[in-house]
Amino acid sequence: MTAPLLKVQGLKTWFDTPRGMVKSVDGVDLELRRGEILGLVGESGSGKSVTGFSLIGLVDPPGRVVDGRIEFNGEDLRTASPAGLRSLRGDRIAMIFQDPMMTLNPVLRIGTQMIETVRAHRNVSRAEARAKAVEALGKVGIPRPAERIDAYPHEFSGGMRQRVAIAIALLHEPDLIIADEPTTALDVTIQSQILAEVQKLAAEMGLGLIWISHDLGVVAALAQRVAVMYAGRIVERGTIDEVLDTPRHPYTAGLIGSTPMANVRGQPLRQIPGSAPPPLGRPEGCPFRPRCAHATDICRTEPQETLAGGHGWRCFHPLQDAAEVRT
Amino acid sequence: MTITPPAARAVAVTKRFQRKTDFADRLAIRLGIASPPPAVHALDAVDLEVGKGEVVGLVGESGCGKSTLGRVIAGMLPPTSGHVEHDGKDIAQLRGKAARDMRLATQIIFQDPMSSLNPRKRVREIIGEAPRVHGLMPRGGTRKLVEDLLARVGLDPAMADRYPHQFSGGQRQRIGIARALAVNPDFLICDESIAALDVSIQAQVINLFMQLRAELGLTLLFISHDLSVVRHISDRVVIMYLGRVVEEASTDAIFDTPRHPYTEALLHEIPRLDRRARSFSPVKGEIPSPVNPPSGCHFHPRCPFAMEICATTRPPLLDVAAGHRAACHLNGGQGRLPLEIQNHTQD
Question: Which of A64, A58, A60, A69 has its CA nearest to residue A22?
């Protein structure tokens, strides 16, 4: 058994706001092996993006990682020096955002930005850096990379821009990529082109990938394992088959059940009642309690994770079998 | 004649957007030192029919003209050519009360409720304004109407005095729906009305639309890029690509026997929970710009089955089966996909 590439334990990222402490991430455990794709799924406000930002040390004040361990290749990133973290970012760990214009500077040619990125981490000549950039653009399926490298970001379409952002992430063949909803803004046919490239590259390069998404369908197609977040916590995690076929947490089951494909056409969709609690008004104990049909008094206390092999869930009343999942 | 006319019908509707030229531009164009501004071909001779009480799903990717078509049918945008009929009457010919009644009977619900609700007005005013202005309610009667509408869309009537920012995204969308219902419409155009919502909230709003349709007998034009949602809610589906309708049929026919390679590709690309660890085989290439669409069939540069004729001749939208129309040159205009593709669609 190889050591995991990334091991996160008890991660807490809180934002100290004038209205109170917003506990965006409140005790997250994750594990990722080399060459593995992990889907991190949740609705808006669940803390999935803040988790991604926390891993790479990009949480802005008033946010702060207040507790937990982030072990990357055996090294604790929380105790790493700013300089040490800086040399890891962009080199061993890279991030891809939903909006590629967050990565790209609109007034610089993409070549300029890519060469800069290469030379920030490697002592190479401009010509060598440029060759490396052209190679990366070719890898993500940009036609005529040697010409397109001199174009500005606005000369690319949305899908192509996202490919450029992925190429920048791949420049140093990182060990870990954190991708935050990178295909959410794209059209279906363009999304599947990007997913196809990512799937191929992840397999070829053996990189670890955390794919943050609200779309269970995308994660089902792409990832080997999935973690479901709700109100700052991971409520269920396991392999894709474990979590999608035998969900134990009522929230996971509710999410699966509310997709149109899981329902008879024309019949009302099975819906989760209510909406996610606001970050400053989360109920004590299990945060899903007010929306859950199975909740009892014990749910007022904090549920701990139950682990069966690699499949874990935080619930006092886990669903037992497929029949129960459907109700 | 006892045949009831469709709730809405678009006949050969074309819409081009072009930047307005000022005096200097016109002078430069006349002198031959500048060319006229390029036109965006948003809609290219589109026919669409929405029957009374029917739910029609209008599907396509960005730039295909689905939102423009929704707005032209709602009467918010005049078509460049062609015309739109409501209940058999050309809406451009309506004047006075008839025009006003037509506009009230057709309401549109937008994608982003935050930008379509006035942030400085209370919900009571947002919902009650239109019926008051149009004199549909006696003075003082709107209070009860607003509360009834809030209850109908699943919100607590006690929240009528709050502002939009005090609601969550799903609740705001319900307010938008209540506002549309306030003038008693019989035709709703939903333009990506659930795209911005979370999965669990999407299900609630889809259920609300289905419930409203059943209770009020509404006609719906449901514009969306999400085929799985459209499949769930629609009776009939219309697929658009770059300003043209490429295929239309009953929902079952579209999903079971697609006759256009673009429809086939879209169906194949929907992310689904039961399609796991699959290898993607996406259609190649980008969506071309509507400023300069490809010749012939707009899809031919990306189509795996493109033939010579596809680059030169626009395929007409032909009947390929009862109630099923496709615009494709394959197999003599029948749009029948090669056999191996058909098998793979049906699994």
Answer: A64
**Shared domain check, A142 and A87:** no
Distance CA B195, CA B203 (A): 11
- Mean pLDDT on A252-261: 88
Beta-carbon pairs below 8 A across chains A and B: 131
**DSSP state, A277?**
P
In tens, the pLDDT along A186-242 reads 888 888 888 888 888 888 888 899 999 988 888 998 999 999 999 999 999 999 999
Q: What is the pTM of this model?
A: 0.85
CATH topology of domain B52-78+89-234: Rossmann fold (3.40.50)
Tell me the per-residue pLDDT of A158-182, one tens digit each, with 9 for 90 and over: 888 888 999 999 888 899 999 998 8
Residues of B in Cβ contact (< 8 Å) with A271: 200, 203-204, 207
Strand order in the sheet with A75-76: A20-32, A6-17, A63-72, A75-76
Best residue in B272, B291, B303 to probe A by mutation, most A CBs within 10 Å?
B272
Task: Supply the range of the domain harboring residue A136.
Answer: 105-171
Measured over the CA atoms of residue B260, residue B264, residue B270 and residue B273, the dihedral's sign is positive
What is the count of structural domains for chain A?
2
Name the residue among B211, B251, B272 with its Cβ closest to that of A217.
Answer: B272
A256 to chain B: which residues are within 8 Å by CB?
Answer: 273
Please identify every stretch of chain B with a pLDDT value under 50, giving residue numbers as ranges.
Answer: 1-2, 345-347
What residues of A are in contact with residue B204 (Cβ under 8 Å)?
271-272
| Beta carbons of B200 and A188 less than 8 Å apart | no
Whether residue A269 and residue B232 make contact (CB cut-off 8 A), yes or no, is yes
- Please say whether the dihedral angle defined by the alpha carbons of residues A32, A34, A36 and A39, taken in this order, is positive or negative: positive
A218 & A300 share domain: yes
Do A243 and A277 lie in one domain? The reply is: yes
The whole-angstrom distance between A218's CA and the closest CA on chain B is: 5
* DSSP designation for B23: H
Kindly list the residues from chain A whose CB atom is less than 8 angstroms away from the CB atom of residue B279. Answer: 196, 199
